Amino acid sequence: MAQRNIFLGVLLLCVVFVVAGCKTIPTQTPSDTIATTIITDPAVNPISASADNFNILGRISISDKDQSFSGSFRWRHSEKIDEILLFTPLGQAVAEITRDSDGVRLITSKLEAFYAENVEYLTEEVLGWRLPLNGLQYWIQGAHSPITSAEKDLGQNNQLIAIRQDGWSIHYARFVAEKSRPAPMPKLFHLYYDNERLKIRVIVDEWNVQY
Prior knowledge:
Blueprint: H1 2-14, E1 23-26, E2 36-40, E3 53-63, E4 68-77, E5 82-87, E6 93-100, E7 103-108, E8 113-116, H2 119-126, H3 133-139, E9 150-154, E10 160-165, E11 168-177, E12 185-193, E13 198-210
């Protein structure tokens, strides 16, 4: 019953996405010239380069050879915990994913609970597709993860076009200017995995970056 109340409470927060004071900035298209490709090695102390805390409302669509899914999400991220809620386009709860020091927990709309140490394996087993949470907490902010090596493609104005890391390819289509953030934040981007057999499209409707 407690988990059901969590779902219903968050649904009220996700009915309307409000975006204020934002300006959308398109990136270069894939046919544009890549000015620079930067290759980065893992950080000496990746713990000190943790992702910024944030609270995001957005939309997501996933497709592979066997299935497809589209809906909305809410993601609260901090250094100690990740909480992700997935919804259908009509606002029905699909899953709640929580990651903390004890591991990963996934609760379905039927209130079935599953546990694991790895988010990608757990989401693939239960939902049928991988959610690359370790890298996504950085990619959704237009940065690469400091934990592993990465390649970044930059355009003529040093605008980020793509990141390739951990077997994933992330292509940025639009950014949004935020008054609380010195650099534009990703608005629309695509993730590809396993030779594009898995495709994920993410749209961020509301950014709330916390420091």
